[in-house]
Design goal:
The complex is a heterodimer of chains A (387) and B (156).
Chain A lengths: L2 H7 L6 H4 L2 H9 L3 H6 L20 E4 L1 H4 L4 H15 L6 E5 L7 H12 L3 E5 L7 E7 L4 E5 L5 E6 L3 E4 L8 E6 L11 H7 L5 E5 H8 L14 E5 L11 H7 L7 E5 L13 H5 L12 E5 L5 H13 L5 E6 L10 H12 L9 E6 L21
Parallel strand pairs in A: 1-2, 2-3, 3-5, 4-6, 5-7, 6-8, 8-9, 9-10, 10-11, 11-12, 12-13, 13-14
Chain B lengths: L7 E5 L5 E5 H4 L3 H9 L7 E3 L5 H15 L6 H14 L2 H13 L3 H15 L4 H8 L7 H15 L1
Parallel strand pairs in B: 1-3
Antiparallel strand pairs in B: 1-2
Helix pairs in contact in B: 3-5, 5-6
The chains are: A alpha/beta (387), B mainly alpha (156).
Keywords (chain B): Ubl conjugation pathway
GO biological process, one term (chain B): protein ubiquitination
Protein name (chain B): SKP1-like protein
């Protein structure tokens, strides 16, 4: 026995270690390498199974590069899996994963990530992870997402306002949902270029006005190109937002040559202090881009607000092959279709607007009678958009 | 801060010894911090610390004193200090410190003590660990065999 141990043992004749509260003993075991932690199971009956629960008080699960040292992939996998199982439903504040899952561990890695994102910060760095789809739903506590998954095809985020960093360009991204229910904006991206390149190939996208601001904001939509986008859904909530993005300006500036279907959730109310700065832009120039393929537009929550009328006028002018303009009127609004007189007034005003496409059909629907026809691809979002 | 009267609290160990310390030092313990917050700071100056003897409490307060002033030191200075502090403790004191850090909610001290014990376990055979900590092997031969098989699977 080493001299150090002799000194330690000097005064101790009782087994007080075993008498320490389990919490402390588990804490001790959590500082041991797995091998030695397991070995304590052979000490006595009081230690038999303790090592199995040595992680429950951890909120940090850090499987970083140094964790991988001297371990075979199988060992790494078993260690992480054991820790994740012990973690169960407990809170995870930091989840740091640096792991090459190969083909064998794809499903398990996905499960770990699912478990981790239920609460907290997540940093996934899995080189060559063939992650195709990543869906965060109602993850209100996530502060930061760092993602390295170049084969990602589908990214859905519904939650608070995290910082989002893509560590490489996802070249195959075709399906994006970004909706923030928080009061803050998504934090501005550090790797803006990656994101712009990443969404270059997106075909179906749903954004809230904060998501729109996140992807295209600040630069006044100058570098905004979505050449393959076929369907766009925008959810505007102006009442909770000091500087709402101007959807008209966005549609005017963004290059959207493939857009076929456009869905816009209009805000339930407008901030009266808000100024419609870009009005002049919208009215100018006939040489602006046209929507060569846009066939369907659906505006939900149409209240004949002057901003909505502007948007409508703009779309009629630019959508040269428009077939259907669906206007969903809120059920409890004074413009309710049920109130014939006011409705007649509104429908006349809309019908006489100049239209670039001769076959445009205007469909009026009351929100209470809205059926399942003509729904956007992302129609089953698990939260109430407008309350 | 000359002339400013420091707020003091009195802690009473389980064997009845009183320790008068600065409030900011005592508050390294979440247990004490909560006790102070609950009962209006001015009145409640005597806080009994159950199950912690004066010898242990004096050592715990040495730790709290250092860490209450942690901002004045470089991080590695504190680390060095922690290392020396825990090296000085024999097994008896180590147990008492762990117990006290747990009952007084001093996370840093608990971690320090737990790491120290872990370092004593690490690298030893089960028999060596039992000898060091006086742990009695109470398994039957059948149980031992069963455990041995289980271990083999885990070592694989």
């Amino acid at each position: 026995m080493a001299r150090d141990d002799e000194f330690m043992k000097r005064s101790c004749f009782e087994d007080r270690l075993t008498l320490l509260p389990d919490v402390i003993r588990m804490h001790i075991l959590s500082f041991l390498p797995r091998k030695y932690a397991i070995r304590t199971g052979t000490l006595s009956s009081q230690w038999r199974d303790l090592w199995k629960s040595r992680y429950p008080y951890r909120t940090t699960l850090d499987f970083n590069e140094s964790f991988l040292e001297d371990k075979t992939p199988g060992e790494v996998f078993r260690s992480i899996n054991e820790a994740m199982e012990k973690q169960g439903d407990s809170k995870i504040e930091v989840f740091n994963l640096f792991f090459y899952p190969g083909r064998n561990y794809q499903d398990v890695v996905t499960r770990w990530i699912e478990q981790a994102v239920l609460n907290g910060y997540i940093r996934v760095f899995a080189p060559n992870l063939l992650l195709r789809s990543l869906v965060f739903v109602c993850c209100w506590n996530i502060q930061l997402i760092e993602l390295s998954a170049e084969f990602l095809q589908s990214f859905h985020f519904i939650g608070g306002s995290p910082s989002l960093y893509l560590l490489n360009t996802p070249s195959y991204l075709v399906d994006v949902v970004m909706i923030s229910g928080g009061d803050e904006y998504f934090k501005p991206p550090r790797d803006w270029l990656n994101i712009i390149l990443g969404i270059n190939g997106v075909e179906v996208m749903t954004l809230c006005n904060k998501g729109l601001e996140f992807l295209f904001g600040n630069g006044g939509f100058t570098s905004c190109r979505l050449p393959r986008l076929r369907e766009l859904q925008v959810i505007i909530d102006e009442s909770r937002d000091d500087h709402p993005i101007d959807i008209c300006a966005f549609l005017k500036k963004c290059f959207l040559p493939s857009l076929e279907r456009l869905f816009i959730e209009l805000p339930s109310s407008y901030d009266s202090n808000w100024h419609f700065n870009n009005m002049a832009l919208i009215q100018s120039g006939a040489q602006d881009q046209q929507f060569e393929k846009l066939k369907l537009v659906k505006l939900r929550g149409f209240k004949k607000h002057y901003k909505e009328m502007h948007l409508l006028r703009f779309l009629f002018q630019k959508a040269v092959v428009l077939e259907q303009m669906v206007l969903v009127v809120p059920h409890d609004h004074d413009m309710d279709i049920c109130r014939k007189f006011a409705f007649h007034f509104m429908s006349t005003e809309v019908s006489i607007m100049p239209k670039a496409s001769p076959q445009t059909q205007i469909v009026w629907v009351c929100s209470s009678e809205e059926n399942a026809n003509l729904l956007p691809t992302h129609s089953c979002l698990p939260f109430k958009i407008i309350d | 801060m000359v002339g400013v009267k420091k707020k003091m609290v009195t802690l009473v160990s389980s064997d009845g010894v009183e320790f008068v310390v600065e409030k900011r030092v005592a508050e390294q313990s979440l247990f004490i911090k909560n006790a102070l917050n609950e009962g209006g700071v001015e009145e409640k100056v005597m806080i009994p610390i159950p199950k912690v003897t004066s010898d242990t409490l004096s050592s715990v307060l040495e730790y709290c004193e250092k860490h209450a002033s942690a901002t004045e030191f470089q991080e590695n200075e504190i680390e060095e200090w922690d290392k020396e502090y825990i090296e000085k403790a024999d097994l008896d004191l180590l147990y008492y410190l762990l117990q006290a850090s747990y009952s007084m909610s001093i996370m840093g001290l608990m971690e320090l003590g737990a790491k120290k014990v872990a370092s004593l376990i690490r690298g030893k055979s089960p028999q060596e660990i039992r000898e060091l900590f006086n742990i009695k092997n109470d398994f039957t031969p059948e149980q031992e065999e069963e455990i041995r098989r289980e271990m083999q699977w885990n070592y694989e």
